[in-house]
Amino acid sequence: MSASLRPWLTGLALSLALLQPLGASAKEAAPLAQNPAVEARLQHLGKELRCLVCQNETITDSTADLAQDLRQEIRELIIQGKTDQEIKDYLVARYGDFVLYRPPVQNNTLLLWFGPALFFLVGLGVLVRYLRRRTRLAEATARSLSPEERARAESLLKDQQP
User: Fold this and answer.
1) Residues 14, 19, 24, 25: what is their CA dihedral angle, to the nearest 10 degrees?
2) Where do runs of H (alpha helix) occur along 26-146?
3) What range does the record give for the signal peptide (predicted)?
4) CA distance 2 to 156
């Protein structure tokens, strides 16, 4: 091998070695349903179902392997002629209410539905109570000052104003 060819081949080998991990991580595109109506129905249903891996994404938006499997399973159920409610019932029976993006209001989900409003109201009540107590304390402190102390405080405040 000639001396002028050696650096070129070394550079080529290094480039191929650096590009190899990129090819290993690429995935094939997920096949779409043969029937556009099935795919449209899957998209509609998928927006109402939660990805069990991602937990804050719908099955439609998730790229997790489980979400892809669930989309394929839903396609098969649609092709079998199942209604949307039958598909949801099947998935709830298999994975629980958590699979629904909007779980039903039940005894075990009351805190989920009304918890944020409850925490807001409790926080608002604590804030109002704190502000009232602070106002009463300031008024009581102002009343407990003698006329000389009050005049001195007012003069200090006037001196600090621009």
Assistant:
1) 140
2) 36-46, 65-79, 84-95, 110-143
3) 1-26
4) 92
Above 60 in pLDDT, residue 13?
yes
Quick one: CA dihedral 10, 14, 20, 22, positive or negative? negative
Q: 158 exposed, middle or buried (CB, 10 Å; 0-12, 13-18, 19+)?
A: exposed
Question: What integer is the mean pLDDT of 3-14?
Answer: 72
State the Cα–Cα distance between residues 120 and 53, nearest whole angstrom: 29
Neighbours of 81 (CB within 10 A): 7
Asked if the model's pLDDT at residue 82 lies above 70, the reply is yes
> How far is the C-alpha of 155 from the C-alpha of 152, rounded, in Å?
5
Percentage of the chain lying above the pLDDT 70 cut = 83
